[in-house]
Amino acid sequence: MKLVIGIVRPEQANQVLEALHRAEVRGFSMSRVQGHGGEVERVETYRGTTVQMGLSEKVRFEVAVSDSFVDRAVAAICEGGRTGEVGDGKIFVVPLDHAVRIRTGDTDEGAVTPVSR
Amino acid sequence: MNPGVDTGDTAWMLIATALVLMMTPALGLFYAGLVRSKNTLNTFMMSVAAIAVATVTWAAVGYSLAFDGDGAIIGGLGNAFMSGVDFAPREGTTIPELVFFAFQATFCIITVALISGAVVERMRFGAFLVFAALWSVLVYAVLAHWAFGGGWLISGGTLDFAGGVPVEMASGFSALAAALVVGARKEWGRQALLPHNAVYVLLGAGLLWFGWFGFNGGSGFSTGDPSVLAFTNTLLCPACTLIVWFALDLIRGRKVTAIGAATAIIVGCVAITPAGGYVSPGWAMLLGALAALPSYAIIVWRTRTRVDETLDVLAAHGTAGFFGILFIGFFAQADWNGVSDGLFYGNAAQLGDQALAALAAPVYAFVVTFVLLKLIGAVMPLRASDREEAMGMDVVQHGEEAYVTGEGAILLLPDDVGKVGVPVADPG
Q1: ipTM of the prediction
Q2: Which fold has domain A2-110?
Q3: Exposed site from A6, A70, B94, B287, fewest CB < 10 Å?
């Protein structure tokens, strides 16, 4: 089992959702985060005060998958998130010790594999 | 004070002018709530820009072309650059021409701002400024002359109390042309593009309704009977539109929606705009109820088409204005307006006069706007790039965000500005 963490541009979030859906990756969560990568900072001006926006809005996807789904999930986030400009984000894959589906008590592989109701 | 100027009338018209001016920022708020959060400021700024640009073009030539003389197609240049616009009463009224000028200017301003609803979230701000300046003269001033200033419609007998022709139908059908020329947003038809703040939409609609009492109530240029009738009809008509809209929402989706209610307020106010001083309160209520139907149908139908007329200016303004103009032809009542009866009271000719306006204004507005935007588009790009559209127009066009948190923002001292990075806010 792995936890796939994808941090992407907010404007690409819908494309990532579509790509994950096409890859049949069903369970995930997403949150809004602020981050800083290598991108050139935006400069904004508010009534004469000019500021450099060091942090930019990103969307963080977290997908817990069984080993056989890791590559598909990574490929989907890459495909949906890529614009080719600096600032497209990163994907991290980390090992996952244990997972529990709260409703049934299923654990590990059983917990991260979608079930049909 | 000049002889012929009435203090009560002038006092009311000063207030009415301020009320109508307030409608434009109210519209900005209404529109801003309907777009995604990354386009909030740009959408609002299009309304602010209309105040800036249309006021200047109105003072330069717009007012003169609309209200100088009674040429059939267009007025003269006798009042260009406000020449002769002073304290003397405007002909046919008891208010100083300066007040009349300002009141009419606020109409031109909001009409320009209304069209922005068709092109928000992708049109470049610079291109919109150029469009606003030219449209306010080439379309608004001409149609205002036809309907208000002694042109062929008003001299032919068409009744238009407060702007069904130059404001409502002009903005609605111009918006359709603008949406076709500028083109749809890149995600249109593929992704749900949702309003980001329904409270702005409701508050904007409420403030528009408030301002509309000046818009319609001031269009008699006095405190006389037509103004009083229009004022009260502006309360009655939208209330009935709201009730019918609630019913349509219930039938269609089993829930009454807030954004639907805000839209209904606009539709009701638009419908009574041309008819305000010409129909009885009872007929105004029927007008409000009936006007909901075509506008609701067009909103439902449009989202299934490829036309991204984003904020439904055609449905809310074009359609309801068209409906209101025709309604006068049926239910105008000389007992109430002292001017003319409609078909229902035995004067079929009035319906013909109204139908002529309902045909001519949309055609003129659509064609001229279409050609004008094609010409502007040949000189400068009308819309932002796909990348800029994805980032949002606030950052790209204005270098600001509506909901900035300030976290991670580093203050730049004057010496540093321009040294760091490449500001993406530079629209070039």
Answers
A1: 0.76
A2: Alpha-Beta Plaits (3.30.70)
A3: A70
